[in-house]
Amino acid sequence: MATNYTAKDITVLEGLEPVRKRPGMYIGGVGTAGLHHLVWEILDNAVDEAMNGYASNIVLTLHEDGSSITISDDGRGIPVDKHAATRKSALEVIFTVLHAGGKFEHGSYTTAGGLHGVGASVVNALSSELRASVKRDGTLWEMSFKRGKATGPLKKGGAARGTGTTVYFHPDSTIFPKVEFDPALIRERLEVVSYLHKGVRVTFDNEVAGKKDVFEHQEGLPDFLSKIIADRGAKPVHEAAFAQTRDTSPRLDLVLQWTEATDEHVRSYANGIPTGSGGTHENGLRAGLGKAVRNYIDTHNLSPKGVTLIAEDIREGLTGVLSIFVEEPQFQGQTKDRLNNPELTSAIDSAVRPALEHWLNHNRSVAEAIVGRIILAARAREASRAAQAEITRKTATTGRLNLPGKLSDCSSSGREDSELFVVEGDSAGGSAKQGRDRVRQAILPLRGKVMNTEGMTLAKVLENKELADLVTALGCGLGKNFELDRLRYGRVIILADADSDGHHIATLLLTFIYRHLPQLIAAGRVFLAQPPLYRIDIGKETFWALDDAHRDRLLKLYGNGRAHADITRFKGLGEMMPKVLWETTLNPKTRRLLRVEISDQIVTDRVINELMGKDASARFRFIMERAEEAQELDV
After folding, report:
1. Which residues pair with residue 565 across a beta bridge?
2. What is the pLDDT of residue 88?
3. Which of 395, 307, 289 is nearest to 351 (CA)?
4. Residue-wise pLDDT tens digits, 89-130
């Protein structure tokens, strides 16, 4: 390492090279979320045209290769005349220069999702190929790029009717490890666009599946709310939803409805962009909503005896959509997942509170049903707290005292270097106990399939001994009493059989953790072990296959022209010798682990509800839509 640090050690990245060098700064990463962020950037530009009244049609095409996208709109079309400062066409500037766009001033756009002038150029920088076509003033203009650089000048084509912009791009496989778009994710985003911008016609042409979907919703958010409630299988407490529209700045569209669900589910958007991590607009909504409901309860002497209402009680079961439009949104980073405008908290609060309070006072039967739901939530919370306190009292985990009897704990007192394996079945637990590293690895065997906790109250969940033992072993509490600092292990690893039954058990455990211990997932503490389903012996070499597809790949790669392959299929972890289980699944140097992460909260919530919820029709529909993807189940 050089000891002198001088000017020659300073690297200056020009043009779009900073984007290619550090893509995570602009799109959050190069995984699935980052890949799809490219789509959202170009889509948001088309939506901005529609949002400001210049476009009424948006078409997104996922091409047959599954790895390239075309997005077109019938807006004004990107300007193609010469830019005074650069002497290049405005189109080339927009796609090749960071912080260049028409949204810094308010002459071209009143409100917009694209703000920083980097979206189009970032997509261009991270694409192996990008083509932009513009229809303006009766002429078609075209320009092509490769990895952020123009391959030629702007070309003037023939005559063209109408106006609009079309952008084709193919993400660069040298940047993204896997270039494969998720049609379901794209379809859902497009459908949301059609709800947020009523009257705009949005088309998804999925060439991979040979299917075309057209979305257009004249009612907007009320239709969206009905769909969300239906998808979640939540029964509304009252028929008519609260709806508020405000045209003055900040523009606001809001719909709310209380349901019998046990959680709050509000989706928020700023200038048409989903703010999954919330922000000041959500804070303002919660503040205004809480004040309005409390004022109604106090005015009509409806306060319950023996229980104190808290903000979480008021919002339990609440389902809603909040969409705001502001001239100068302050997003947290280019991924725009959170809105930070400090003035919006009080602005939304003062807008929502009087409108909701007026609605409650003029819909007394609805209001009383909502208040009854809130009081029920408060009493259930108190009962749950008492139940949890009772379990905590009986199974206090001071040091290593009073831990579950079937837990084989590790001897290490340090948290970060210790692991808890939650193992399917006593037989597998026995093998794991013998094969583990006793210093660092603890084993908690669970008997059979744990209960499905989707839609269940915390008090009901804690009545289940298997799950109560897991909570006790973890030591961090759950629900509102969760404290990450009290977690006794650095990693929580789900270890189930590699067959369909094992996958089901893992799904049940993940459902419980997602609903009642979501902080563990957010902290990156939850993992899935990957035990082999097959042992393949070819000559003197042994290979371990995770599933049928992996087995076939190994046979094709190593089996051709060599000795006969001897294949053993494990019926379960309990069949494995402790030494084999250590080598394949427990040993940190040789095992495979999958970290459980949530890339899209909304999609994850919907999928878990469809897979694990009480509505069998949603589950049937989910399975049938993915029938071709399913592997043959064990009989």
Report:
1. 538
2. 83
3. 289
4. 889 888 988 865 444 344 444 444 443 346 789 999 999 999
Count CB-CB contacts under 10 A for residue 71. Answer: 21
pLDDT for the residue numbered 552:
86
Q: What is the pLDDT of residue 115?
A: 39
pTM of the model: 0.62
What is the CATH code of the structural domain delimited by 221-375? 3.30.230.10
The pLDDT assigned to 485 comes to: 87
Q: Which fold is adopted by the domain 395-531+570-598?
A: Rossmann fold (3.40.50)
User: Where are the strands (E) in 485-592, listed by range?
Assistant: 491-495, 526-529, 534-538, 541-545, 565-569
Sole residue written with tokens 């609903």: 515
Query: What is the identity of the amino acid at 508?
Result: L
Q: Between the CA of residue 178 and those of 21, 31, 338, 429, what are the distances in Å?
A: 18, 8, 27, 36
Q: Is 21 helix (H, G, I), strand (E, B) or coil?
A: helix
User: Which residues participate in catalysis according to the annotation?
Assistant: 424, 497, 499, 501
SS3 assignment, position 402: coil
From the list 311, 329, 318, the residue with the least C-alpha distance to 275 is: 329
CATH topology of domain 17-215: Heat Shock Protein 90 (3.30.565)
Q: Which two tokens stand for residue 333?
A: 């980073």
Interhelix angle for 221-232 vs 183-196, to 10°?
140
Reduced to 3 states (helix: H, G, I; strand: E, B; else coil), residue 452 is: coil
Closest CA to 275 of 375, 352, 346, 196: 196
Is residue 83 within 8 Å of 89, Cβ to Cβ?
yes
What is the C-alpha to C-alpha distance for residues 472 and 395, in angstroms, rounded to an integer?
7
Give the pLDDT score at 182.
94
Count of CB atoms situated within 10 Å of the CB of 265: 19
Count of C-beta atoms within a 10 Å radius of residue 6: 7
- For β-strands 541-545 and 534-538, DSSP reports them as antiparallel
At 456 the pLDDT is: 78
pLDDT digits (tens, 9 = 90+) for 9-32: 444 445 678 788 888 888 888 899
Closest CA to 533 of 577, 502, 564: 502
DSSP assignment letter at 413: -
pLDDT (0 to 100) of residue 118? 64
pLDDT of residue 174: 93
- Regions of the chain where pLDDT drops below 70: 1-15, 99-118, 333-335, 384-402, 561-563, 600-602, 615-635
Three-state DSSP at 198 gives: coil
Q: In what order do the strands lie in the sheet with 565-569?
A: 541-545, 534-538, 565-569
Under 8 Å between Cβ of 47 and 58:
yes
Contact between residue 600 and residue 575 where contact means Cβ atoms under 8 Å apart: no
Extents of the domains making up the chain: 17-215, 221-375, 395-531+570-598, 599-635
DSSP 236: B
Asked if 35 contacts 176 with a C-beta cutoff of 8 angstroms, the reply is: yes
DSSP state of 486: G
